[in-house]
């Protein structure tokens, strides 16, 4: 496997950004045409559509053209998931926020990420209806379309923070979510990891807590760490990018105060 230089990473970033912009344009044009909706795992809230599977197949095919060494962790039909993070591991979420996509027609995203030997390397999140592609990585910086994103500036205390929390886990009464909802200045429920991350990147929120599957977390982690956010579990255990994690992505002060509240 050939080592990728910064120039090569920039080229891959530009290519994937262009591809996702094209996919977003197609979705905005044909969003509800020939849409077929099913459920997964016997859960009536866990939706999947033909757009999910078509987007994933398209992305798998195109990524293999630019990276023949690619391994994949993807949401739909994930039979060949790698057992380790060695080499080039690509994460794909072909429609993030499928419930929003089907029932609201907004606040959904497509997410892709590249990790090299376990290191967060490149990430892309397209906020489809806003035509915004968040992209980049530690070697390149983070951008929205062609505009460089500012590093996180306001390291707010929790009582000054707007948190994005998992609505399902709040409704289920999970204590850590209730504690943080009560302690924060305000909380929001979005229903899409990609849209939640985009609000952090635009500094419209200070923290985001949810249990995230690998494809929910991967791209957001790359860009959040690039911008200076803490991306950790609340107990400080290492992130396992091949399984689900309960993760808080936040400014340093918000993270520290959240951990203290959860432990008390």
Would you mind describing this structure in some detail?
With 264 residues, the protein is of the alpha+beta class. It has two domains: 6-148, Fructose-1,6-Bisphosphatase, subunit A, domain 1 (Fructose-1,6-Bisphosphatase, Chain A, domain 1); 158-263, D-Maltodextrin-Binding Protein, domain 2. The protein is globular. The termini are far apart. Helix 6 (193-201) packs parallel to helix 7. The protein has eight helices and 14 strands. The chain has a seven-stranded mixed sheet, with helices on both faces. The model has no long low-confidence stretch (mean pLDDT 92). Strand 1 and strand 2 form a beta hairpin. The longest helix has 25 residues, at 6-30.
CATH topology of the largest domain: Fructose-1,6-Bisphosphatase, Chain A, domain 1
Task: Find the structural class using helix and strand composition.
Answer: alpha+beta
In the CATH hierarchy, the architecture of the largest domain is: 2-Layer Sandwich
Tally of extended strands? Answer: 14
- N to C succession of SSEs: HEEHEEHEEEEEEHHEHEHEEH
Query: How many structurally independent domains?
Result: 2
Strand order within the widest sheet? 3-4-5-6-7-8-9
The CATH class of the largest domain, by name, is Alpha Beta
Fraction of residues in β-strands: 25-35%
């Amino acid at each position: 496997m050939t080592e990728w230089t910064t120039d090569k990473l920039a080229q891959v970033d530009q290519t994937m950004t262009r591809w996702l912009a094209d996919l977003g344009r197609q979705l905005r044009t044909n969003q509800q045409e020939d849409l077929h909706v099913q459920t997964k795992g016997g859960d009536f809230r866990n939706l999947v559509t033909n757009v999910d599977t078509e987007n994933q197949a398209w992305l798998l095919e195109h990524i293999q053209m630019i990276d023949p060494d690619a391994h994949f962790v993807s949401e739909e039909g994930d039979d060949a998931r790698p057992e380790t993070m060695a080499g080039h591991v690509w994460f794909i979420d072909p429609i993030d926020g499928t419930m929003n996509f089907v029932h609201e027609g907004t606040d959904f995203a497509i997410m892709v990420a590249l990790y090299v030997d376990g290191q967060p390397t490149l990430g892309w999140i397209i906020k489809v209806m806003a035509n915004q592609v968040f992209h980049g990585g530690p070697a390149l910086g983070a951008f929205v379309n062609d505009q460089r994103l500012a590093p996180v500036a306001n390291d707010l205390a929790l009582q000054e923070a707007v948190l994005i929390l998992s609505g399902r886990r709040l409704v289920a009464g999970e204590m850590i979510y209730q504690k943080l909802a009560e302690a924060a200045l305000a909380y929001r429920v979005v229903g899409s990891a990609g849209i939640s991350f985009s609000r952090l990147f635009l500094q419209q929120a200070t923290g985001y807590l949810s249990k995230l599957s690998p494809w929910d977390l991967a791209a957001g982690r790359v860009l959040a760490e690039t911008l200076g956010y803490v991306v950790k579990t609340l107990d400080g255990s290492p992130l396992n990018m091949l399984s689900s994690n309960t993760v808080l992505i936040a400014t340093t002060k918000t993270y520290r105060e959240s951990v203290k509240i959860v432990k008390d």
